[in-house]
Design goal:
The protein is α/β, with parallel strands linked by helices. It contains 11 helices and 10 strands. The protein has an 8-stranded parallel beta sheet with strand order 3-4-5-6-7-8-9-10. It has a two-stranded antiparallel sheet with strand order 1-2.
């Protein structure tokens, strides 16, 4: 497994397990619990260590399912890196504190490794959001703070408000979705030791497979989606969090961390026909 080193000398897996859609969408769907827990257990048993979730996912139920899978597999909490997020409507000082307590309770954990602002809310001042996040970090309930879906300007504003370094900006990024390259966020993150977490790395299963992608996959004896993941994590400071409930795809996603693309292959895929 490849890891990204963090400023505090800890590390985070380059390929994590995303949980958007696990256990339901905006509300819990308990009819899917058995399948969801089986997928999470499979991920833990395969060696995934980074799990990304949010209070918004299945109305918080995704967090509960992660806790259940950790308990059932008797996995060490200390060996895992869990990211969760506070949703936009809760970005007041009190809202952030309450949201974090809810996530901690559902995760059955004393701390969250990385706590993100899920989306910016122009109606609520970031100053109050970070007043709460700074307190949570000082209390040890949150080990790292970060943001998600933040533009370059908002990311820089967050840096000024956060007592601790902003660890990550989680944004959509894939071979076919490069808006956060074009807007300067990727370059800024790389220059300032901020992890860029790529979500929807396979466009929710609809990533176009170009001739270039197919040829490179064939050369490595891998699937096109595996190469798409390897391309992302081959870039400095970039990690990704694919999601699947299929045990075969879960294993393939993790195995992509072992694929080493050449500089020429990375450049080919970065081109307009990648």
């Amino acid at each position: 497994m490849n890891y990204e080193s963090l400023p505090d000398h800890s590390r985070i897996a380059k390929i994590g397990f995303g949980t958007s859609g696990v256990g339901g969408w905006m509300m819990a769907d308990h009819s899917q619990d058995a399948r969801a827990v089986a997928a999470l257990r499979s991920a833990l048993e395969l060696g995934y260590t980074h799990f990304d979730t949010a209070e918004m996912y299945a109305g918080g139920h995704a967090e509960e399912l992660i806790a259940r899978a950790i308990s059932e597999t008797k996995s060490s909490r200390e060996g895992l890196f869990i990211t969760s997020k506070v949703q936009p409507m809760h970005l007041t000082y009190g809202g952030v504190k309450k949201a974090c307590e809810g996530s901690l309770r559902r995760l059955a954990s004393d701390y969250i490794d990385l706590y993100l602002v899920h989306w910016p809310n122009p109606l609520l001042p970031l100053k109050e959001t970070f007043r709460a996040l700074n307190e949570l970090a000082r209390e040890g309930k949150v080990r790292h703070v970060g943001v998600s879906n933040f533009s370059l300007g908002l990311l820089q504003q967050s840096q000024k408000l956060s007592e601790a370094p902003i660890l990550a900006d989680q944004v959509p990024y894939s071979l076919s979705h490069r808006s956060y390259v074009d807007n300067g966020v990727l370059k800024y993150c790389q220059e300032n030791k901020i992890v860029l977490t790529a979500y929807s790395p396979m466009d929710r299963g609809h990533l176009p497979v170009s001739d270039t992608l197919r040829a490179i996959a064939s050369a490595h004896g891998a699937g096109p989606f595996q190469i798409a993941l390897a391309w992302l994590i081959g870039q400095p400071g970039v990690i990704t969090i694919p999601m699947s409930l299929d045990p075969r795809h879960i294993a393939e996603n993790l195995a992509a961390a072992e694929i080493e693309l050449s500089t020429a292959e990375i450049d080919q895929l970065a081109g307009p026909h990648g």
